[in-house]
Amino acid sequence: MIRLSFFIILLFVWISPISSVSYRWFKQVAERTNTSLVVDAYYAKCLVDAPDYLNSCGTVTYGVGLTPRSAKDFARFYAVATGEPHCNGYIGQCLIRQYCSK
């Protein structure tokens, strides 16, 4: 029973669309942040959960860094640079992935 449940979890993680992202996803984040793709760098795409009355904050923010934390910090900076100074406080869920060339 334990092996079966482990196999099911492993299969779900293997086919999950969240666990793997395409080259196009990395390219989009790199273009939005005005950077180039760097092997072993982390790329982040975060949702901005700002209240409705804050129209200047975008709905998505992007970040790049050498660690997952620095990629999220860059996404906070990106939110401030493209919106208002308080937009970085509304960064919600982030999808952070490491770019590895094939």
From TrEMBL:
Superkingdom in the source lineage: Eukaryota
Question: Key word Signal present in the record?
Answer: yes
Sorted UniProt keywords = Signal
* Signal peptide coordinates: 1-20
* Protein name, entry field: Beta-lactamase
* Originating species: Hymenolepis diminuta
